[in-house]
Amino acid sequence: MNIPEQSTTLHVHGESWTHRLHPLNKLAYILLVGVGVYLLPKGWMIACLLIVCNLVLAMMSGVLGPLWKILWRTMLPLLLFMIPIHGLLNPDNVTPVFTYHSISLYAEGLRFAAVVLVRLAAVITASLLFVLCTHPADCITAATQAGCSPSVAYLLGSPLLILPAMRARAGVIQSAQRARGLDSEGHFFKRMKALKPLVAPFVLGALVEIEQRAIALEVRGFNSRTVATSWRVLVDSKGQKGARWAMLLMVVGIIVWRIVG
Amino acid sequence: MMGLSDRLKSGFSTFTLVFIAVAIVINIAVGQLVSLLKLPIFLDSIGTILVGVLAGPWAGAITGLLTNLIWGLISSPVAAAFAPVAMVIGFMAGICARYGLFKTWWLALVAGVVITVFNAVVAVPIRLYMFGGITGSGADFVTSYMLALGRDLFGSVVITVFTSNLLDKVVSALLVWGLIKALPGRTTSRLSRSEATLS
Q1: 3-class SS of residue A2
Q2: Chain A partners of B21 at a C-beta cutoff of 8 Å?
Q3: pLDDT by residue (tens digit) across B157-170?
Q4: In the predicted model, what is the mean pLDDT of residues A88-97?
Q5: What share of chain A is helix, strand, coil (3-state, %, to 5)?
Q6: Which residues from A are below 8 Å from B25, CB to CB?
Q7: Which of A67, A81, A139, A152 is the most exposed place for a label (fewest CB within 10 A)?
Q8: Do residues A5 and A224 touch, judged by C-beta distance below 8 A?
Q9: Chain A: nearest CA to B99, how far in angstroms?
């Protein structure tokens, strides 16, 4: 599927080792990181290690800048809410570490917040490595090669292609309804009433187009039973396959160990 | 009832597939459209509910799942963590429609409440165990207020998830009901479950 290079996704073009890895390997890695930091004992220590590891990988792949930016954009609101809420109000709080007048920050809550944040940061950095270093078209090719039907490939790919046009249309409807005197400043119920004139033309317009899009697909042989030839070629070596299975086995191992132990 | 993979292999017509793809885009773009009104709702599941009602629970579930996964690709991986929640919203919308809960506006309101309840059943564990109860949004004020009143973390998160979603899901369900009424018969007649909404 031909997705424009300057697409709507976060993908950063590159030729590094991480870029060339098979998408399924990167997904297996995210799974392993998630299972590892949440289920293993001392998961937060593993998480700290993995964050460093992910940042080094990002640097080697030339995506450290965008990764760092998105990481902070995601983590900052979490930090700002997590630390005061758990520090002040966590129900397990008993040991004050810092008191100002009658307000205290407690060790238990702060420790809880730190563990949650470190685990999240490990999973987010791993996911961002995948998102930034994998071309969306490669995900789709990987899904098809793994035996998913062309419908799955279509459902993963086409929203990315339709999105920019729909966003533009949303902008057009906004300005058109505002020009007609839509009340976007009044009190709550007035603004609630304005929902329908905004949403209805947008959704109805999109739905009426479905038939045309469906016909366009069918006349291009979408329902054909022959296997389509892929334009993109995914490199998948024996070593990569082995690594993938090893990671999945570790995931299963950790889960089983956790249930039994 | 057929399983998810069976449905994907044989159950969907090209029309339904395109419907799902368009609904995913509606989910993602509608938030930007209504941001103008500065309302405390996100409306990010209108497309999911629409597919659930018109094309059945499994189609709804797939719409929800893929919306959040694609969201993960274009803005933030946090959205992907909540993909199971979006799945349940679509699935339950389909079940509600099957039992006739999208026939009138007040039944649609009930459907909105039902969806909110099931939304909470899936969202609370994710929010609690993965995020420690806090997701860095305005809803966290509700959590902190409940904690300050002396509730435990679980109770606070349940109340937060329920209250912050109730208005959103009820308004979404009502909008979907209104939209289906306004759709031309030529479009609805192509969808398998549209008779469930005609009173």
Answers
A1: coil
A2: 154-155, 158-159, 162, 213
A3: 999 999 989 999 99
A4: 86
A5: 70, 5, 25
A6: 159, 162-163, 166, 206
A7: A152
A8: no
A9: 24
